[in-house]
Amino acid sequence: MVARLTASKAGKLNFNVSMPTNTNYSKTGETTTVKGDTLTVKGALGNNGLLYNSQIKVVLDNGEGTLSEGADGASLKVSDAKAVTLYIAAATDYKQKYPSYRTGETAAEVNTRVAKVVQDAANKGYTAVKKAHIADHSAIYDRVKIDLGQSGHSSDGAVATDALLKAYQRGSATTAQKRELETLVYKYGRYLTIGSSRENSQLPSNLQGIWSVTAGDNAHGNTPWGSDFHMNVNLQMNYWPTYSTNMAECAQPLISYVDSLREPGRVTAKIYAGVDQGFMAHTQNNPFGWTCPGWSFDWGWSPAAVPWILQNCWEYYEFTGDVSYMQNYIYPMMKEEAIFYDNILIDDGTGHLVSSPSYSPEHGPRTAGNTYEQTLIWQLYEDTIKAAETLGVDADLVATWKDHQSRLKGPIEIGDSGQIKEWYEERL
């Protein structure tokens, strides 16, 4: 990250640069040091020992002004400058690899890696880094243009966004202003995706974002749900628009993340389902292989979360037509999960297959089969069959999947009042 501050006159920039960290989390060995033009904060998390390191390099334009250590010993003091550029980088020793989830680096090696990123950026200079950033961002962002009739109205900044939002909520916005805000939200969603989920990222964007804080001046709060990944709709919802807005490569971190759940998910499948084939994950999961039901069984149990998130992965192929990518990265996950359901579905006594226990997320009760889970299993079989037939593989498994799909209870049934039934037994 690069930030540049300028003043209209020489010698008018005077400020301190610091990097306070979240005091709500347990940490070990955290230090803040100032050396020359660089501020470094490093340490390790107290709960799992994850190393972290962040550095800010302060560059004065043409050497105008002075840099010194702040009086608190934990900040850099900028004095009498006209233009200052801050080069900021951060890293951990995390690696998306079960079971260690570590690169194996020492704290010194992580420090060297971060320092190189900062120095390389500073060597390029602000203008070159900004140009590269714009080119990188625009390569994806500029693929889509949207015009719902808003052009020529508030897009020139005549109406500030906060005022536009209030007018929209009050019902006083013009038709063109409504379209302006709607297209702005659409563009903002694409912007956030480009900024948080790229083809070389280790992790996808998540429910809350790792920078969420509580209210209050400079308050660092505990991120809701520990900044984990919720697959009872939240993670899926993050990525629903990714393909239709022409940003398929931005979904690759999601596919990689789901794939990373397979190894720990096999352990969970063995413990919770008693099967040696397939993998299981639930509503709540995280980058360190957490695939068990979660903090509370009442809302945490949801094995169909995996079939649901696999729909997002399958759509990568549907939108791109990339058979090779589907074969190497997507089909293996779908095949393993279909085999998992081959092993856990039970006959309900009528010849129909149901998943049991099944549970509509956060609704209950636990039953043998429900619409939520049965429809997701049906779609898993549907997509996996299409994938196998496209690749011309696993004909024997395809026959099994077609049989099991045809025997699924439901998956959609109409209830006594004409509604789509959520549970197959309407009365307990």
Condensed summary:
The protein is built from 12 helices and 12 strands.
SSE inventory with pairings:
Layout lengths: L1 E5 L6 E6 L8 E9 L2 E8 L5 E10 L5 E4 L5 E7 L1 E10 L14 H18 L1 H16 L19 H10 L4 H22 L32 E2 L3 H11 L7 H9 L1 H12 L10 E2 L11 H4 L4 H16 L2 H22 L1 E2 L5 E2 L16 H21 L3 H13 L21
Helix pairs in contact: 5-9, 6-9, 9-10, 9-11, 10-11, 11-12
- SSE order, one letter for each helix or strand: EEEEEEEEHHHHEHHHEHHHEEHH
The helix content, as a percent range, equals 40-55%
Shape: globular
User: Count of DSSP E strands?
Assistant: 12
**Straight-line N-to-C gap:** 57 Å
Sheet having the most strands: 5 strands, antiparallel
- Order of strands, widest sheet: 1-8-5-4-3
User: Which structural class is indicated by helix and strand composition?
Assistant: alpha+beta
Strand content: 15-25%
Please tell me the overall pLDDT: 92
Radius of gyration: 26 Å
The count of helical stretches stands at 12
Q: Unreliable segments (pLDDT under 50, ≥5 consecutive)? A: none
Structure explained in plain terms:
The protein has helices at residues 107-124, 126-141, 161-170, 175-196, 234-244, 252-260, 262-273, 297-300, 305-320, 323-344, 371-391, 395-407, and strands at residues 2-6, 13-18, 27-35, 38-45, 51-60, 66-69, 75-81, 83-92, 229-230, 284-285, 346-347, 353-354. With 428 residues, the protein is α+β, with helices and mostly antiparallel strands. The strands form 4 sheets. It has a 5-stranded antiparallel β-sheet. A 3-stranded antiparallel β-sheet has the order 2-7-6, with no helix packed on it. A two-stranded antiparallel sheet has the order 9-10. α9 packs parallel to α11. The N and C termini lie far apart (57 Å). The mean pLDDT is 92.
